[in-house]
Inverse folding.
DNA sequence: GTCTATATGCCGATAGAC
DNA sequence: GTCTATCGGCATATAGAC
């Protein structure tokens, strides 16, 4: 039994590499066309493997989709985890906005796939939302509430502040097409990125300082 | 030729009624599962017509989808059209937030379908975005800029203000599942609706007043 | 592990009677 | 306008050789 070691070494390095290649190929397709709008054939083609070979690494289409979701959840939650009480309130929130806008710029497809999942009622993420995310949010809400109690922030509802932060930053990824249609720019443009950061920061920070 | 009259009377009243029934049945399904995730069979079943009969009223699945999108675009743009220079800046923006939150509460599926279309790169709406929406936004941006020039608002970028308004209000519809998982509530709860309105209003209005 | 061939099922759309 | 029957295509998944 060579498969009894730790999870990380369960599969050979080559196999894991191939899995990652397939996952990378799947992300842009699933995020744009959804689970049902994407055929395994196209994923396989994009990953440069045969369809049967793909099904050797992932037992089913849904298994591939789930693996992808779990993968990106990491990217997704990272900025929130970085949120710390150690910092000054304003500095922390400014930093959070920057981090989230950076994710919107560098991982728009991850943001979109997450959004897609939410639209569908998060059938595969319900549990994660109710446990891991809920707990994380509770922790961070407490930090925000602490800042409010300390007089560093105006008395707003921490939850709604988080919703506002998420909404305003993710919008530039999820609605990127609309933003581009109207402004003619997107976050890849350094000037537009800075302008977006300044405006979002300005509105929200002014909105929550005493 | 009884079909040569105005568009509104092209079809009999009964036929138009049936079309609307089918469209109503299609909205929740398309908005949740997308174009490819929804079968005509299910739409027909939900509308209580046969699949062939459905295809008599809409020549193809895509035609039905497009008809639906055009339908909801109306609902979608209505709040922005109501935005008027006649009003005081703060009053107008507060009213706009209320209108948009009302749409998020009463037409969450329309909001979701629109969002879904955006995620996919708006293949069917590109033209509308680039013409009708672009023009509408240009008009309303000018109004906002007018308020800024008159010293009624802080000097923020009108476009980013609009993006922020859209993002924060639509979030409660599009990410309704996440909001529910974390807060345990949704906009149908009158108390939560008011709380949401107060918080969004507070953050944004304070963020843009001089 | 990777291939060819194929089983199997679903779905969009059409034909044609009534 | 509405029905029954069915065609044709596509996509997931499996069987089995190598």
């Amino acid at each position: 039994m060579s498969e009894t070691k730790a999870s990380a070494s369960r599969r050979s390095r080559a196999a894991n590499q191939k899995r990652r290649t397939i996952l990378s190929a799947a992300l842009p397709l699933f995020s744009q066309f959804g689970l049902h709008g994407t055929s395994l054939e196209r994923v396989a083609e994009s990953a440069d493997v045969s369809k049967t070979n793909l099904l050797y690494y992932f037992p089913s289409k849904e298994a591939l989709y789930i693996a992808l979701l779990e993968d990106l959840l990491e990217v997704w939650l990272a900025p929130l985890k970085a949120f710390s009480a150690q910092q000054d309130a304003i500095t922390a929130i400014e930093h959070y906005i920057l981090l989230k806008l950076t994710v919107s710029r560098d991982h728009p497809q991850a943001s979109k796939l997450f959004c897609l999942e939410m639209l569908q009622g998060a059938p595969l993420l319900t549990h994660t939302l109710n446990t891991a995310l809920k707990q994380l949010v509770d922790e961070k809400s407490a930090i925000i509430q602490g800042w409010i109690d300390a007089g560093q922030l105006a008395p707003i509802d921490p939850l709604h502040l988080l919703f506002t932060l998420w909404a305003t930053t993710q919008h530039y990824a999820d609605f990127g097409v609309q933003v581009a249609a109207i402004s003619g720019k997107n976050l890849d443009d350094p000037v537009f990125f800075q302008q977006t950061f300044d405006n979002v920061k300005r509105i929200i920070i002014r909105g929550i300082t005493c």
User: Anything to note?
Assistant: Residues 15, 49-50, 52-53, 56 of chain A lie near DNA strand C (CB under 10 Å from a C1'). Chain A has two domains: 1-59, 69-208.
